[in-house]
């Protein structure tokens, strides 16, 4: 399922469920994405974003090991990195400042993920 629109993009994955993280990693690699992570906790994700490592987009679980991922989302916003939330929680749990962002419910299908990332790419280029 190689996707030329996603080829070479560096996507940060913040997900604490090992099986979901591995599944998402495999899906993204198959689509031609260079995966940053997966990262399984908020402090490591914050450190990675603060390091200045090149990131073209991100997929964030809302609750990572009992912590809200919102500080990571804020750091990505400060850097101008587009991101989407992927979670088992309802989108209405998001703070108002994130209400306009793309969101997918778990379990997600491959088309949903690649569509979110393509949308991130289009948004970032405008």
From TrEMBL:
It comes from the Bacteria. The keyword Phosphoprotein applies. The keyword Phosphoprotein applies. SMART domains: REC. Keywords: Phosphoprotein. This is Response regulatory domain-containing protein. GO terms for biological process: phosphorelay signal transduction system. Residues 10-121 form the Response regulatory domain. The modification 4-aspartylphosphate is found at residue 61.
